[in-house]
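name: query_chain
kind: protein
chains: 1
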Amino acid sequence: MSEGTEARDAGATRGVVVLGTGGTISGKAGDAHDNVGYSAGLVGVGDLVDGVPGLDTRVAAGLRLEVEQVAQVDSKDMSHAVWRRIAERAAFHLNREDVAGVVITHGTDTLEETAYLLQRVLAPSKPLVLTAAMRPASSSEADGPTNLRHAIELACLPEARGVLAVVAGTVWAGHEVRKVHPYRTDAFSAGDAGAIGYLEEGRMRRLRDWPTGEPLGLAVLAAEIWPEVQIVVSHGGADGRLVDLLLDAGVQGIVVACTGNGTVHDDLRASLMRAAREGVAVLRALRHGSGVILPGSVESLPSAEGLTPAQARVELLLRLLATMHRA
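structure:
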């Protein structure tokens, strides 16, 4: 057992490790009816697990739970260093023979970025399940306990694999999930791809295959200084001044959030083309949450297909890190 990991039932045989990283699921407000004016990342992951109804029965039936506090941040403040730490600890526990799966409690704001990164880097053969909440732990309407119970149930499934996200009973592929609502408890989608399935009365009703892929490997995250990748937005009245400033600052990658079928304002496009000629990696992504950039458009800049701009930034970041690692 690693330092900082607490066992909940050392005598059981099947293990699930719950890694805490903060977020609304561990948030608190001064009023149980306040679901907006709370502070995220205040409740420890051990207390979150203790607050999940029905887990005592599962533990008695042979489930061993371990908890580890990897970080305690509001996910809007997610950093490259925390990403690397999450990936390292998740990989460590997934490689243990006595662990069936790993759960990560996370904030909703950047869950789609963390999930995408973990699937690309680890692509695990066991379930690595992210869960979150849209109501703080102090709320009279807290959704975190049920979401966490679902995540633990999903991590126990022998057939489950890959990076997954489960919120409000819906299971998403980690490389497809994205947040689409700022308040509702069912705040996630996967665009046109749809859900992998649903957790209903402790059972998984699966609609399609688990996520798979070739992992990049943890070594790509080893660089002390990660590349600088930024996002710009194409819109009415856009120009290239932001791109010019980013070039002056030494940026190494730019994602442009596009209109239509991956279209870019002409004035912005000129600066992006110049950036590409100067060796800056550029990707186009759709600024809305569904669909893919169809081939055959007049744009010559590379496409991120169906990724959100935030996911496209992670993809570009990983490509640059992989190039650095090979070098």
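note: The chain has two domains: 5-206, 225-326.
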